UniProtKB/TrEMBL annotation:
Belongs to the bacterial solute-binding protein 1 family. PANTHER family: ARABINOSE-BINDING PROTEIN-RELATED, OSMOPROTECTIVE COMPOUNDS-BINDING PROTEIN GGTB. The keyword Membrane does not apply. It comes from Oerskovia enterophila. SUPFAM superfamilies: Periplasmic binding protein-like II. It comes from the Bacteria. This is Bacterial extracellular solute-binding protein. It holds the Pfam family SBP_bac_1. InterPro entries: Bact_solute-bd_prot1, SBP.
Length: 463
């Protein structure tokens, strides 16, 4: 089944245009140009030294096929320039909104790209299962980089049946609550550090606003054909907090049923917020309005002082209106969605993975480059906001957005336990199907917890 709707979920918020130029780096890497002196040559050698391991790839071309289009595609291509200038290779880039549907067709027809960016581990597993001889195991250089620069969980998400087939590319963090620092300060509220404190804060906001015009929470789960995915993110985040990472893994892998009592407890916990008329939906309507509100608009009432909190991912930063300052002392910012206690620190997130369909030296070199700090730094330089890597050697100072810096800290802090978005790892019939639609019905029609979980369990493929 094509999973193009997952691209809607993953990239529904595009990064804003623009970005710092890589001109200085590129000039140094090229080591060419009229009027260059010995000092310029020495600088070029130094700047290109990290690329010497890839060898001379002059005249070689690597084709890259991805879901990434528009402004972000331009930023991607800009980030490749140091590799191209220092090795002599040419990267032929193609982005498509029909990626998930077209990639299998290209594989079947024998016209697979050299490199593809896979937007979720579930799609990776299906490709490996359906085309076992097409996707190649990761080469030694890229594999060594994954071990050196990434946590073990990122290797695990690129592994199928014990073989590493995909290397990490970009990442995002979903365990955030957006808020107005000024509203919190004016009301004397502190950022909660546990789930109980979060609920106590919500109750305090209700008490302090007895007319009900201002609510603790605002939300929206509308997203066209992908309507419902923000509610599944809520569910996944809460499963991590109420049941723990091990049970979360069992649930995602269907080692326990979708209607297991531990999962039912998590859904009930989500309901204490999203189905609580006292808590939602500030500035928008009642509980049912969550289902008809586009997720891109779900947090905007914060700017009007009509709600205090909105749970949404790091990439939501791109949705605030032009002129909104996103910073700890700005118009809006975000805090970590807390766990049961300060010791339990689960983080829900997502990202993309790189696979190869050719073992030519230039292809293996480019995949290794994409796992390196040099690429992460080049991409951070080219991207004003909305992109991070889980590469532990990324220069954090190059991240131009405070939210991106905060996200990177969570991804690379060993005290936080990262888990990939569950619906992106489930079979498409569930993760991009019944999970979305049933959570929508749970909100829109007040469908019962039991009926929702039973329906999703019944939809799980038997093979």
């Amino acid at each position: 089944m094509a999973r193009s709707t997952l691209s809607i979920k993953r990239r529904a918020l595009a990064a804003v245009a623009g970005g710092a130029s890589l001109a200085i780096v590129l000039t140094a890497c090229s080591g060419s140009g009229d009027g260059g002196d010995a000092g310029d040559t020495e600088a070029a050698t130094a700047d290109c030294s990290a690329y010497e391991e890839y060898g001379d790839l002059s005249g070689k071309t690597v084709s890259v096929y991805t879901t990434i289009v528009d402004t972000e595609a331009e930023q991607q291509q800009e980030s490749y320039k140091p590799f191209e200038d220092c090795t002599g290779a040419t990267i032929k880039y193609e982005g498509s909104k029909e990626f998930e549907a077209q990639l299998p067709i290209r594989i079947q027809s024998g016209s697979a790209p050299d490199i593809a960016y896979i937007p979720q581990p579930g799609f990776l597993k299906s490709l490996v299962q359906d085309y076992p001889d097409a996707i190649l195991p990761v080469g030694d250089a890229a594999s060594a980089n994954v071990d050196e620069f990434y946590t073990e969980s990122w290797r695990d998400y690129g592994t199928v049946d014990g073989t590493l087939y995909a290397t990490p590319l970009g990442a995002n963090v979903k365990s955030f609550v957006w808020y107005s620092p000024a509203m919190f300060e004016d009301a004397g509220y502190e950022i909660p550090t546990t789930w109980d404190e979060l609920i106590a804060l919500s109750d305090q906001i209700v008490e302090d606003n007895p007319d009900g015009e201002i609510k603790p929470w605002c939300a929206g789960i509308g997203s066209g054909e992908a309507t419902g995915w923000p509610a599944t993110d809520w569910m996944e985040d809460v499963v991590l907090r109420t049941a723990g990472p091990e049970v979360y893994d069992q649930w995602v892998n269907h080692e326990i049923p979708f209607n297991d009592p531990q999962i039912a407890d998590a859904l009930a916990t989500v309901g204490t917020v999203l189905k609580n008329d006292d808590y939602v939906n500030g500035g928008i309507g009642d509980v049912s309005s969550i289902a008809t509100t586009e997720f891109t608009e779900g947090g905007l009432p914060i700017l009007d002082g009509l709600c205090y909190m909105h749970r949404q991912a790091s990439f939501y930063q791109a949705n605030w209106p032009e002129g909104t300052t996103v910073a700890e002392d700005g118009d809006v910012f975000a805090f970590y969605f807390p766990g049961n206690d300060t010791e339990a620190k689960p983080v829900l997130g997502g990202g993309e993975f790189v696979v190869s369909f050719a073992d030519r030296p230039e292809v293996q070199a480019f995949q290794a480059f994409l796992t390196s700090p040099e690429w992460s730094n080049a991409k951070a330089t080219a991207t004003p906001q909305g992109w991070i890597s889980a590469n532990k050697e990324l220069d954090k100072s190059l991240l131009q957005s405070p939210i991106d810096q905060l996200s990177y800290g969570l991804l690379t802090d060993d005290s936080y336990v990262f888990r990939f978005d569950g619906s992106d790892m489930m079979p498409a019939a569930v993760g991009a199907g019944s999970f979305w639609t049933e959570m929508t019905e749970w909100i829109a029609s007040d469908k019962s917890d039991t009926a929702v979980l039973d329906a999703i369990e019944a939809s799980w493929p038997t093979s």
